[in-house]
Specification:
By secondary structure, the chain is an alpha/beta fold. 22% of the residues lie in helices and 19% in strands. The protein has 3 helices and 9 strands. The longest helix is centred in the last third of the chain and has 24 residues, at 140-163.
């Protein structure tokens, strides 16, 4: 397992598609982006992803980690005192590498600042369903259970998107997303 800095500039001159957990994932066929490196966050589209980035220490509850192929890069969070990474991890990151945020925000920072993809496309970055953000595989009753946490989390993270100075072109493929600072698909 090596530090994420070993992947510096792997995206130069290339395009990537970052897959989050929002509802816009349902309306987009990933196969329509054959020339993009697919980056999955946590358990989202991991079976099609070239790179999987996760924060959650419970990654083994998401899917059978043994299904990761040798061609996929699995990047996990590693705390100085608590190792949240799994044995299949190929690379790790820690808080010193990123601005505080959710896994999607971490992934976008890596794609822009470390991987240096020339064009970055986002799906699942909705932040707008029923006024809350939630994963495409959760139900409205699941939202009600975590409503206070979701609102607190989104409130803390969403402003960070506008504070960042982004280096590369970022296009949000969901026109109804609350992240209005990025280009929207024409």
């Amino acid at each position: 397992m090596t530090h994420i800095s070993q992947l510096q500039d792997i995206g130069l001159g290339k395009r990537c598609l970052i897959v989050g957990g929002g509802h816009s994932v349902r309306s987009i066929n990933i196969d329509d982006y054959p020339d993009c490196t697919i980056i999955g966050t946590n358990n989202h589209k991991h079976e099609q992803a070239d790179i999987i980035i996760y924060f959650d220490k419970d990654i083994n509850e998401y899917y059978d980690i043994t299904e990761i192929t040798p061609d996929q890069k699995l990047i996990g969070f590693k705390h100085k005192q608590l190792d949240n990474t799994c044995s299949q991890c190929t690379h790790y990151y820690n808080y010193d590498d990123i601005v505080f945020g959710d896994t999607g925000f971490h992934t976008l920072q890596f794609a822009d600042k470390i991987f240096n993809f020339s064009e970055i496309y986002l799906i699942g970055y909705d932040y707008s369903v029923f006024g809350n953000s939630y994963h495409h595989n959760e139900t409205v009753s699941d939202i009600a259970k975590q409503d206070k946490f979701v609102n607190w989390s989104i409130g803390k993270v969403i402003d960070k998107y506008s504070e960042m100075e982004w280096d590369n072109k970022i296009v949000n493929l969901n026109p109804s997303s609350n992240l209005n600072i990025f280009h929207k698909k024409d």
